[in-house]
Design a protein that fits this description.
Glycosyltransferase; mainly alpha; 47% helix; two-stranded antiparallel sheet; 498 residues
Length: 498
């Protein structure tokens, strides 16, 4: 069980000073302009999802350079799997990160939707584009389709989604080939979305919740990691490194929040130790839900409704202390410019997800009039908000390069993102088919991408704040849906409060 980090007395003063310097004296923006236009950034962060759409595009599609794509997905398996999102800069539909994206978009709306103004409508549309697909993927009891497209053939090509001629294999899990991780995350997404639609579309909300219940039962009954069942298809792309246990708790936590049924509360309490609720407290993303579980469940404790979840609040407090700059933790670094940095690719996924948890927890603490003691430092709600805002401001341009890492926001942003549809000429500009290898010259070109994928947030700079702005450097230059999904909530809050 995680406890609050204790500071060595000889270092505490220096560390507290480091916290204050970082949070209270942010970098000046190179442009010298005033504060950020969070409302504009919010609009663009949601617009990005329209550029990631697969399937038949609706009449109100705003990114007009995208066209219909992958209209026969699922046909080889005798099912309709059209729709959903491409997760990043390729043309595969990976169900694991797509479901996490839907969960985080939903959580963004649940906690911060009231701050989004008219943009909440577009955020809700972004959720529904995912959940309509997830309903198709879970339509057959005891089966979840978890991926469409062969990643090896897809990654061997650089072509527009509208031109795809690679294999569109549909991969599934079932009782004989389990995947509690992706099924648990899918249940979480459906349950979280049911809350979003509860008053907006009650019939759809009930359908989502009922499906979430069924998918969770399947995930729990047939336990196993989907990367064992589908290793060739999902590894090393979205291989489950962390195990499936956290997704079972995560799914149960969202089902408890959505349904208020006692069985899910009892499941969480009963399985807390078995499913390792306190593991890796400062990790949160598509593969590791531990910090998210602890923050989500802790709201019940802070509201005075659920003493039986007290250990989750202790874990959440431990997470908060481990993230604070100036408090040494081997898994969390800060760049010289003040950006959260964790080892591995696409660092911005950690920045936005962890910042979302800081902001959500600061709100829960505010409502309960609580703080988090971290040795000799006290993490107040205001401090956590400042730290989350500092990360968002870094993304939007308050950084050593004076560059916005959101495409289309600010005067200077990445021009050569690792993204097939953005980097190849659009169908409108070049109606003729561009074959698998014919796109390579666009990938290797030093020219900016012809299509601006507005709102896309790329993987971001390295630990020294350096950024190459080059397509081959995919870890830095590739956008993903799960970078943007938590950012929607952050920008929603800051657009209303700053």
């Amino acid at each position: 069980m995680a406890r609050n980090a204790q500071l060595p007395l000889s270092l505490s003063a220096l560390r507290i000073l480091a916290v204050l310097l970082l949070l209270l004296h942010p970098l000046r923006r190179v442009s010298g302009a005033g504060g950020h236009d969070y409302r504009d950034a919010l609009r663009k962060s949601i617009l990005f999802f329209e550029g990631q759409r697969s399937g038949k595009l609706p009449p109100d599609q705003r990114l007009r350079w995208r066209r219909d794509s992958a209209l026969r997905d699922g046909a080889t398996a005798g099912v309709d799997l059209t729709g959903g999102y491409y997760d990043a800069g390729d043309n595969i539909k990976f169900g694991f990160p797509m479901a996490f994206t839907a969960t985080m978009l939903s959580w963004s709306i649940i906690d911060f939707g009231r701050s989004m103004g008219p943009e909440v409508r577009n955020a809700v549309k972004a959720v529904r584009w995912a959940t309509d697909y997830l309903l198709k993927a879970t339509a057959i009891p005891g089966v979840v389709f978890v991926q469409v497209g062969d990643p090896l053939s897809d990654h061997n090509c650089w072509e527009r989604p509208e031109d795809m001629d690679t294999l569109r294999t549909a991969y599934k899990i079932d009782g004989a080939h389990p995947g509690s991780d992706v099924a648990g995350e899918t249940a979480a997404a459906l349950a979280a979305a049911s809350i979003v639609f509860r008053s907006r579309d009650p019939a759809y909300s009930r359908m989502l919740l009922n499906r979430a219940v069924r998918v969770f039962q399947f995930a729990d009954r047939y336990r196993g990691a989907y990367s064992n069942s589908l290793h060739r298809a999902v590894c090393p792309f979205y291989c489950d490194v962390n195990g499936y246990q956290d997704e079972l708790l995560w799914g149960a936590a969202w089902l408890h929040k959505a349904s208020r049924r006692r069985q899910y509360r009892e499941y969480i309490v009963r399985n807390e130790v078995v499913l390792r609720a306190g593991d890796t407290i400062n990790e949160f993303g598509w593969d590791n839900k531990h910090a998210g579980i602890n923050v989500l469940v802790s709201k019940e404790v802070l509201m005075g409704r659920a003493e039986y979840f007290e250990s989750f609040k202790q874990n959440a407090d431990g997470f908060i202390c481990s993230i604070l700059p100036g408090i040494s933790h081997p898994q969390v670094q800060y760049s010289p410019g003040g950006l959260i940095f964790k080892a591995g690719g696409s660092n911005m996924q950690h920045v936005t997800s962890l910042s979302f948890l800081l902001l959500a927890y600061s709100n829960y603490l505010s409502h309960a009039n609580k703080v988090v003691p971290c040795g000799e430092t006290t993490a107040t709600p205001a401090l956590l908000k400042r730290l989350a805002k500092r990360q968002v401001d870094y993304i939007l341009g308050d950084n050593p390069l004076g560059m916005s890492y959101m495409v289309g926001y600010g005067a200077r942003y990445p021009q050569r993102i690792h993204h097939r549809a953005s980097s190849l000429p659009s169908v409108g500009a070049h109606p003729a088919h561009i074959g698998c290898k014919a796109g390579s010259r666009y990938f290797l070109s030093p020219n900016p991408n012809p299509n601006v994928l507005v709102g896309a947030v790329v993987g971001g700079p390295n630990v020294t704040d350096a950024f190459p702005d080059s397509r081959p450097y995919f870890q830095e230059s590739e956008p993903t849906t799960y970078i943007n999904a938590p950012l929607v909530g952050l920008l929603g809050f800051f657009s209303a409060h700053y």
